[in-house]
Amino acid sequence: MIGIETRTAAGILTLTALRGIGPATAERLAERFLLLDAIIGAEPAKLRSVVSAAVAESLHEPTAIVNAGEKAQRVLDEAHRRDVRVLSIFDVDYPDALRSLSDRPPILFVKGTLPPRRSVACIGTREPSEFGEIVSDRIVETLVAANWAIVSGLATGVDTLSHQAALRHGGQTIAVLAGGLDGIYPKQNTKLADEILERNGALVSEQPFGVPPSPRNLVQRDRLQSGLSIATFVMQTDIKGGSMHTVRFTIQQNRLLFAPVPQGRHAAEPKSQGILAMTRFSATRFADAARAEGDYRRILVERYRNDPVAVPLASKEDYTSMLELLENRVAGDAAQDAPVRPSSPAQMSML
């Protein structure tokens, strides 16, 4: 263990393998101590400023550190066999978009090629209707043509449609997994995952090998989808759909939020009700419908007030303004961001 730097992937993995140390604590220890040996030899008072007394005591157990280091090395060896990069929050290759998050993962597993900052998340229901299928293809096609990479979660439904559309139109796409990169979920998307890698895309996860995509991990995955992206596009969702987790993270992370507005019979579909709420309700009404509480509700009411929380895309006429908003945001010129209003009813059509 002598000389292992805490800020490396090996160091962070060793720390998180210790009992009582989670990702955030591991990062704090790495910021305070440059070497694992420095932690082992640290005075209890210094350790207790970062961890509990019980954890501080365990950090002075040589066998615990050795065992944790061996476990970390097994993870790194497995990553090497699978051609997976293990990035530490302190590595220069760690995505800057995630680095800015307060709940960022200190370790990221990456297989393939991560894009530059020009990434947008495209998400939605696992059971899209005709409307969801059509808008997913048309919006992704427009984004790819403007050189935006598509981030999604490799789930069935809109996620799959978005990845496929990105590949079909010659774009780059990134799949964020809820489990370890040693197991593709759902299995029927294994071929799609392979194609994503073949076409210069990437598979990303914060979960170690062998970890399944549990409900909690699926929600954690959602924050990475929006976190990696300049904006989130919600193609279709119910007001209580799982996509609303990504909507919440998008708003809390101060990313842009877009949604295509369903018209006619499509507006009556259950899977369109979340879209209508995002694009037509005031922030307060949306907060009530989404059962938003705490900090999330405060942000909604303070930031949006009487405006809808998502930029509505009512027709292709809105695409130009949509792309301008994205360019302004990626350039860091948030002051120029302005809401895009729906086109007149005469112009509205299936996007």
Automatic annotation (TrEMBL):
Name the record gives this protein: DNA-processing protein DprA
Pfam families linked: DNA_processg_A, HHH_5
Q: Which InterPro entries match?
A: DprA, DrpA_SLOG, RuvA_2-like
Record domain Smf/DprA SLOG: where: 86-288
Entry similarity comment: Belongs to the DprA/Smf family.
Position of the signal peptide: none
Query: What highest taxon heads this organism's lineage?
Result: Bacteria
